[in-house]
Amino acid sequence: MNLDFLDTPMSVTTEKRKAPGKHNARIAAVQAMYQMEISGRGAAGVIDEFLEERLSGTPEFLPSSEIDRNFFARLVKGVVKNQEEVDQAIRSQLSEKWRLSRIDATLRAILRCGCFELTITKAATPAVVIDEYVEISNQFFDQKETGFINASLDAINKSFMKSAADLLKAGK
Fold first, then answer.
1. Domain limits at 151?
2. 63 inside domain
3. Is 60 helix (H, G, I), strand (E, B) or coil?
4. How many domains does the chain have?
């Protein structure tokens, strides 16, 4: 089993952000989701490993002061708890010829985290969420994959917003 992705140090953002702790929590959540999928481990064990080891402030990983540890845990737990709904939202935007399982595991992790934030938590504006995950995808992929993440999350958001508007019109 190749876990090279996990050995890649999480980069700390150097630009000034309003919420660097949340940005870095998103990076860690994507890596945790990837690890869960590749290793077959559950959310609780992976969250504990990240919080106790990977995010403990060692130089090769994010300093603990620069990550919102609670947001990280909520993201991972939330994606797992709502994975069926999240995966269905992603599948609805894929070409008929593509299955979610054919998408690279890292791209799946990015899509799942982004989709969860757009459709379930709604804690940040859609533009912020999409920008965050596009930026994260830039750390791991070329422009083609980054464009795929941007287009997919944008389409998921538009579909979600349309569904919400349709429910309001129907009086539900």
1. 16-169
2. yes
3. coil
4. 1
Single-letter amino acid code for the residue at 80? V
Residue 1 lies in a domain: no
72-to-20, 97, 142 alpha-carbon distances in Å: 12, 33, 25
CA distances from 137 to 5, 75, 104, 147 (A): 13, 17, 12, 9
9 within a domain of the structure (yes/no): no
| Number of other CB atoms surrounding residue 167 within 10 Å | 10
**Dist. CA 151–CA 2, nearest whole Å:** 28
Q: How far is CA 110 from the centre of its chain?
A: 4
SS3 string, 8-46, reads CCCCCCCCCCCCHHHHHHHHHHHHHHHHHHHHCCCHHHH
Q: Quote the Cα angle for 144-147-149, to 5°.
A: 115
Provide the residue-wise pLDDT of the chain in tens; the chain has 172 residues.
Answer: 333 434 444 443 434 456 788 998 999 999 999 999 988 888 888 888 888 876 765 445 554 558 888 999 999 999 999 999 999 999 998 888 788 888 999 999 999 999 999 998 877 899 999 999 999 999 988 888 999 999 999 999 998 887 766 666 676 5
